[in-house]
Amino acid sequence: MAIDGDRSMQITAQKFVAKMIILGMFIIGAFIMAPLTAFATPLVSAAWLSEQLDDENIIVIDLRNKIDNGNYETFLEGYIPGAIHSNYLTDGWRVAAMALLGCCLKQKNLKA
Q: How far apart are CA 98 and CA 3, in angstroms?
């Protein structure tokens, strides 16, 4: 009986170690990605956008969602003039690309 108990204990220990390795990989990934997000910059400057607001070829989409405490009501409290509200989580913006959920749609898939 001791042999079966030892085997059971060994399997439990292996499962624990496997879970710790996976957890460690997530933590390391978070430390790697955090600095990369610090370097994220807007596509255009506020000054450029301000100069382009009357251009009918420019469309500003204000993406908000519950993750950042945003919704249509918060959009109405303050937004870029002429911007269109859209919910990132529910309006089809979250797509999977190469098994990564949360990627944005490609330009060819956008519809006016």
A: 45
d(CA 66, CA 75) in angstroms, rounded, equals 12
Which pLDDT band, with edges at 50, 70 and 90, does 105 fall under? low
d(CA 21, CA 107): 38
Q: What is the CA radius of gyration of the chain?
A: 23
- What pLDDT does 63 receive? 81
